[in-house]
Amino acid sequence: MIIILKHGATDEQVDHVIERIEAMGLQPHLSKGTYRTVIGVIGDEEKVQTAPLMAIPGVEEAMPVMPAYKLASREAHPQPTVVEVGSGSAITKLGGGHFGMIAGPCAVESAERLDEIAAAIKAAGANILRGGAFKPRTSPYSFQGLGEEGLKILREVGDKHGLPVVTEVIDPRHVELVAEYTDMIQLGARNMQNFVLLTEVGKTHKPVLMKRGMAATIKDLLMSAEYVIANGTTEVVLCERGVKGFDNACRNMLDIAAVPQVQLMSHLPIIVDPSHATGRPELIPACALAAAACGADGIHIEVHNCPEEAMSDGPQALLPEQYATLAAQIRKVAEAVGKTF
Amino acid sequence: MIIILKHGATDEQVDHVIERIEAMGLQPHLSKGTYRTVIGVIGDEEKVQTAPLMAIPGVEEAMPVMPAYKLASREAHPQPTVVEVGSGSAITKLGGGHFGMIAGPCAVESAERLDEIAAAIKAAGANILRGGAFKPRTSPYSFQGLGEEGLKILREVGDKHGLPVVTEVIDPRHVELVAEYTDMIQLGARNMQNFVLLTEVGKTHKPVLMKRGMAATIKDLLMSAEYVIANGTTEVVLCERGVKGFDNACRNMLDIAAVPQVQLMSHLPIIVDPSHATGRPELIPACALAAAACGADGIHIEVHNCPEEAMSDGPQALLPEQYATLAAQIRKVAEAVGKTF
Amino acid sequence: MIIILKHGATDEQVDHVIERIEAMGLQPHLSKGTYRTVIGVIGDEEKVQTAPLMAIPGVEEAMPVMPAYKLASREAHPQPTVVEVGSGSAITKLGGGHFGMIAGPCAVESAERLDEIAAAIKAAGANILRGGAFKPRTSPYSFQGLGEEGLKILREVGDKHGLPVVTEVIDPRHVELVAEYTDMIQLGARNMQNFVLLTEVGKTHKPVLMKRGMAATIKDLLMSAEYVIANGTTEVVLCERGVKGFDNACRNMLDIAAVPQVQLMSHLPIIVDPSHATGRPELIPACALAAAACGADGIHIEVHNCPEEAMSDGPQALLPEQYATLAAQIRKVAEAVGKTF
Amino acid sequence: MIIILKHGATDEQVDHVIERIEAMGLQPHLSKGTYRTVIGVIGDEEKVQTAPLMAIPGVEEAMPVMPAYKLASREAHPQPTVVEVGSGSAITKLGGGHFGMIAGPCAVESAERLDEIAAAIKAAGANILRGGAFKPRTSPYSFQGLGEEGLKILREVGDKHGLPVVTEVIDPRHVELVAEYTDMIQLGARNMQNFVLLTEVGKTHKPVLMKRGMAATIKDLLMSAEYVIANGTTEVVLCERGVKGFDNACRNMLDIAAVPQVQLMSHLPIIVDPSHATGRPELIPACALAAAACGADGIHIEVHNCPEEAMSDGPQALLPEQYATLAAQIRKVAEAVGKTF
């Protein structure tokens, strides 16, 4: 921790800060500049992190020097984590050179429709099937998902096509239920800082797909991963899916630099979801290829066989044939940067 | 609904859009421009709102003309809603000219400390006591609140000082418990789109304090209020508490124009929280006065009697004496724009 | 300057950083933490500021401890600057308790129209007349202003009504011409970092009205003021006029906290322009009152007597009668927080 | 143009709007919905674009249906524009499958240094040399460039190595001078809406490299290109270089989706500058590859042979050897998506 005092801080204020530091069993290291005084704090950074040092009169800033996301940090775990999703013959790996191709409809609507979509994406090279059974909708009047019925359909269709499945949970009371049916639990962007849900999901020890919140910094994202890991699940895949931007021509702004940033700061795999990032099918292919080229550990794309009838997010879905074309291009680019399938 | 077709949409595409509209029992009204074709859709807008019209080939944009937040809209309810918080002799009103002065520590830390703070803010003119028992913290290693013990302390201290109380709920499984102890339930910024929690809180029929999410538009905020109202609670107070900004010199960016915007679009009261909006005590007074002048229905401020010992958000708390000075100024400005206390 | 080394920086890297610092005639002060090494740099901060210390291998961050905007800083000049605009009997002061009421049309369109508007705003209490003669328009096909003819009209109408005038300059080749006709030179938001223009304007020694750029931090704004001051003009009035936001319901997002922030960091007056900040007449009054309450040194409002015929920005203009009502309220609120008129 | 009236607009208001439209020689087409009235305006959209229709009482919104950037639009010019930079044997093409590799130091510092860098980037495959002679610096105390001396050095070094050159102009009075020495004129991000400069640069008929402003939407960018084209230069290359973001861990936020968006909306080539977008050398390679994969028409990268001595932006420069490695990867990815070199 580095404590920067305000210009003009009094000797009493400096002494008071030093006392507080020593009272915590830490060692202050004073550096008087011509303009400001700076105090380095040596000792157990964790003790210091949670202390409200900035509230002490005379303190301008208190800057931690160690990341607060300990378990998620690259420093704690220099090798990339490889997350295994699924079991038996249907196992997909993400991270450490392994590339995930997650695809499927926004919501599970019926067994027939999901079966058709699953067959198509499997043929195109997808290796994880997605589909929502519990949908977080901005309007209380919109379709909220099929619930447990949707989970059953997802499981059956996944098994039939040899695809591990991922689905979102939005209620801590449903975590156990969802965990029973799925191979990977999705935490949605709107729930990235729903710490109650993070805690429950962490306890399942299932692989997690954590989407970045719309106003979350990379540090915020890693802090949320830390919640999950601290509660028991070490297999967390992060997902960049666009953040809030100022240009409404796009649904969100895809922060492609998040991929190398996460890889520098953390050992966790990071994938990209160009469907939610852009909300516009005509922009998805280019953004998916960008993600593959910049080293993402996977791509998440929404696919629907009749977008105009979709019960959720139809306008942003690719058609199965569009996905097939794109999947082949993604594979080519991902292989060019060293991924294996 | 207005459907704008792409420049160059084919006759088949136009016909297909018209068929879809008629199939929904609605009436299309075609307007062929020199550059684009536009279709007005006449009939029950609600049916149309949830249809994925933008997914139909040839459609450029589908724009609703009626707000999707029906119950929360000013049009549905032209008179301002007055929310009553508390019971018996300790009732505080917000909205329709009534002004709420919500104050208290970020977290309930102990009965003694809360009692001291409550006495001070009551004397300064506050009319609702806040204090967190369940804290949504970005780090799993931070203090998470006293839980039910905190709720008890809050209730007792509120009763002792004749102050209705408000506290946050973060877990749908705790909604009933929290509702038992509090006069008003807070939904935090990070949970503004936690629709499961919104639904449970709506069912309690308790007044709600809903904070705006960090990347939420005003429309998003009103859609979340709609969730609560649609589930039973009509008494929702909205709270502008700063949105994500690009200048890290401030914790968030206070969107002061949200106050008149909400008042144009909705009948619900809107208050301002300059503590979270700025995160810096030296900016809080000016921002609080701005909020009072622009017609906010209340001000929410964090107060602590020893910020450097606070277990949460100490650096942004005002001291009781700072609050007392500010409260007098707020009252003066609020009265100047027609509020009653 | 504080230099924070990367975790794991080698001894050679540390030595190299120290050598570089000493080579600049400065004194390094080493502080080895358990996790990171930090070097305080003591001596002439200015020498250090412009050095690319962050480019040295092993350096994680190089943080200045002194503001880079020396002349504009509060520390260099603890007393608020009072800017005087105009001459003879028509002098308006801004800052140090003096409040500027700047009003007028977006563009000067004709002598008659400007005369009518000027008479109305003068009667309402405005003390500076604005009007654009050179307009920075986003479309090359839009009205670009009357040029010198507009400057002449502005000067004559201002003189007739005893109002000092302010107008924008957008071309460094016109600075002298504009300075001849006007009492105060406006630098628009889009030109806040047009350093060539800033330099030329600074040389005129005329009072300047500098609008904040749409993506400028407060520090950026003060750096631009520094350009003007360093070139000769010490009388700079800053103007918060909304920054880029993510909610397109408003033209921009009014950053009201910029007012107290500027006042903490600088001695320069800061005013608010709610017209450009919101772009919507129905939001202007509330935002103007907010600005007055939070301590702004003035308010800038666009007024037009027939917005639907305005040649620029009509939709955001207030009518003269709306301005009159608002001006009376602004004065009341500004007086309540200690301003004089 | 589509005019949406406010809910509850009176008949008089509707009639007034219709009269105004007819007075402009246009044809209104009324569509009365159950909730709102909408008026389609048929006729010459250009006449309508600049009219302040939104200022008419009762109008909620006035939406153009035709892009305001006519000359820059894809609709006006369906085939991609190929921009040729340079002359004689040193010609580089961008657009329509041709890929530009622009590289060089932020500022021209000396003939020797530039010569060394140019030799290195040429060997690595760069096909345009960049270097600033007039630098827009945020501090008046920073190095402002070598001026004409810098232009001469750039020209000589470019010629020696057979590389066309690009350099920034920041002053309309220098446009002719700069045009004399350079093959392509750069308009910097801070000057994207410096319409005076845009106009002068357009008159030179030289190829232009236009960087996107930090708060500019894609439409804003195309409107600025329109300025240049309307003044004479049809060869404009656009450049995405990161926009203002909320996460300060990165200098800016690279909006990668801007590439396919521009390609849908315009015929102009679009390149990416990952150096300014990230400001961090460790993120540049991944972002450059992303840009190549998503179809950008070129990549702009800052290269310096001794970043810690650079007089401008050293910390974000790549070393020549880093650039060589990256350039080979870029070429591979760009070829994979169909570009030629």
Quick structural gist:
The first copy, chain A, is of the alpha/beta class.
Cα-atom Rg of chain A, whole angstroms? 23 Å
Percent of residues in helices of chain A comes to 25-40%
Number of strands of chain A: 14
Distance between the termini of chain A: 43 Å
Number of domains of chain A: 2
Number of helix segments of chain A?
11
- Architecture of the largest domain in chain A, CATH level 2? Alpha-Beta Barrel
Helix-and-strand structural type of chain A:
alpha/beta
CATH topology of the largest domain in chain A, which one? TIM Barrel
- The averaged pLDDT of chain A comes out at 94
Strand percent estimate of chain A: 15-25%
Strand order of the largest sheet of chain A: 13-12-11-10-9-8-7-14
CATH level 1 name of the largest domain in chain A: Alpha Beta
Shape of chain A: elongated
Q: What sequence of helices (H) and strands (E) makes up the elements of chain A?
A: EHEEHEEEEHEHEHEHEHEHEHHEH
Give the assembly state of these chains. Answer: homotetramer
Domain DAHP synthase ferredoxin-like (chains A, B, C, D): 1-66
Keywords (chains A, B, C, D): Transferase
Protein name (chains A, B, C, D): Phospho-2-dehydro-3-deoxyheptonate aldolase
InterPro entries (chains A, B, C, D): Aldolase_TIM, Class-I_DAHP_synthase, DAHP1/KDSA, DAHP_snth_FXD, DAHP_syn_2
